[in-house]
Amino acid sequence: MLRSNNNYNEVLPHREEGSGLLQDAHKIDTKFLGQVVLDSSIEGLLSDIDRSDSLAAISEIYNRLCSTLCYDQTTFLSLNDGAKLKHEVDKHRDPRFISQVSIDRNEVICNDFSVIFAKLSLSMFPDISLSIRETHTGMSNGVMHTSSIVDGAGIGRLEADPLPSFTRSDFLRARLGLLPIGLRSANDLIPPDDTYHKYHNWNDPGNLDKLLETIQEDIRSFELPVVEAASFAKGALRAAIGRVGYNVGVSNYERDSNLISTYTLTDLSNEEISKVSLSEGVLRVFARDASDWGRN
What we know:
single chain; 2 domains; 33% helix; 7-stranded antiparallel sheet
């Protein structure tokens, strides 16, 4: 979802009417698009889409991409490191790198997702207008969040943004069997978050073992990719125990090329109650004060 801007201080973002967001939108560079040659497995996602309803077809392109692609682990681990993050963002802007994305090599960020979505949409509907919206994130090195805007007859004006947040991304929601929320018109209201409906209604927040077992079962049964699994565990823990006053802090690091996520659970007085780690789809408790856990 990111773009680096070396002239950050020279860009004056504008506020689009009704958006409330600092952002910069511009027409997509068709010359750049021409340098990207999509992998045949990505082009194959269009094979049986009905073109007779352009809005339904664009929606199906978006849905299939969200079901196929996932967020890049290396970029995810670089989010708090300005130099590494810039390197990763620049890599995902390279047409040669984007051309290598496939069903098997499917880790992307917002930049390459936007380009792939644009290429597929234009291949079906050459007359549509495509723009890129860049929103300032406040992260280091002027990194910006990127989304696509599609405008055309029978489609209207739609914004495609699969990553409004990691815990609500359409990469995650698609794998959970939930409807996408990131393809919408400017007038659409953001729907209520049903990503963690089961966990918002969790009736035993004091039973950590049962909660972790359920989260791990969901990660495995839905076959969540690495970043989506880490984000899901974070969202599920916060939904289940946040309503009784616990907080969940998260840190991520890499070990032996694997993403390790640590979730620190604290009570109302900010006293640590437990620590949980997620690695390769397995949740483990590695610190717990049994006398405090379950206290409301």
